[in-house]
Design goal:
Blueprint lengths: L4 H7 L4 E6 L8 H4 L4 H17 L6 E6 L6 H13 L5 E5 L7 H5 L7 H5 L5 H4 L1 E2 L5 E4 L8 H5 L2 H13 L2 E5 L8 H8 L2 E6 L6 H12 L6 E8 L5 H7 L11
Parallel strand pairs: 1-8, 2-6, 2-7, 3-5, 3-6, 7-8
Antiparallel strand pairs: 4-5
Helix pairs in contact: 3-4
Length: 254
């Protein structure tokens, strides 16, 4: 039973900070490839709203997750990191989905070293940071799939990695495993300043979404907000209405 956009808004009181239109391009790096598109604009709008959630943090760490796979969290993480880098801020995108390495393909870089090889002490931090080919945007891929991802991420070394990145970068974007499926994402979320839960109308399963919301409420996840991804064009009126601070009813939207 898959949920609609209206269901998502009705089922949770979490603030919706982003409405991402459907990506009709073959590219994952739409902010760079199609800077004048409504998609790129929706990520710029998300970036400006995130200031309300990260203003207290120096070098904020933003975790991007979802209740299940195929909701577009990696796509959202890539493009959120991209819009921060375009501000001239030193930004790093970190692949913490150790079970399903993805980001390296989008930037055409190697996945031989990364988070997993750093966590086991095989590589130094300077060996795992790669350039994306875009100004101000660096990438750490997740690295080779380890046999014990949950145990690795639960180590104190994860916190140490994030602390080292805070010293080197202005913004740290973490692409994590789906929080509804994997326990280690909660540990990662407890280290982040702000968390974004991606939901995708027509793809997100109702029971997974409900369970994820329940688990998050009983956890130490801070500053959680929602991004609705893959909105069909007829509901892109949300973008304009919310851009100017008004919802459809003519009232102010928070």
């Amino acid at each position: 039973n898959k949920i609609s956009e209206e269901d998502i808004r009705r089922m949770t009181n979490l603030p919706v900070v982003g409405n991402i239109p459907r990506n009709l391009e073959k590219s994952s790096t739409v902010v760079f490839d199609y800077p004048n598109s409504s998609l790129a604009e929706s990520f710029r709008l998300l970036r400006s709203r995130m200031q309300f959630f990260t203003k207290e943090a120096e070098s904020p760490v933003i975790l991007v997750t979802s209740s299940m796979p195929e909701e577009g969290k990696t796509f959202a993480a890539i493009n959120l990191a991209s819009v921060y880098s375009l501000l001239g801020k030193r930004t790093i995108l970190v692949g913490f989905d150790l079970r399903k390495p993805k980001i390296y393909q989008d930037f055409g870089i190697s996945n031989e070293k990364g988070v997993s090889t750093w966590l086991i002490g095989q590589d130094k931090i300077e060996n795992i940071i790669q350039e994306s080919g875009k100004e101000n945007l660096s990438v750490i891929t997740s690295g080779p799939v380890p046999p014990n991802p949950s145990e690795l991420i639960a180590l104190d070394r994860t916190k140490e990695l994030i602390n080292q990145l805070r010293e080197k970068f202005d913004y740290i974007i973490l692409d994590s495993s789906p929080i509804g499926l994997v326990s280690d994402t909660f540990h990662l979320a407890s280290l982040a300043d702000s968390c974004l839960l991606i939901a995708r109308p027509g793809a997100t399963l109702r029971d997974m979404f409900e369970r994820t919301l329940r688990e998050i409420e009983g956890s130490s996840v801070r500053s959680l907000s929602m991004v609705i991804n893959d909105i069909e064009s007829e509901s892109q009126h949300y973008n304009l209405g919310e851009k100017y601070g008004y919802s459809e009813g003519g009232g102010k939207s928070g």
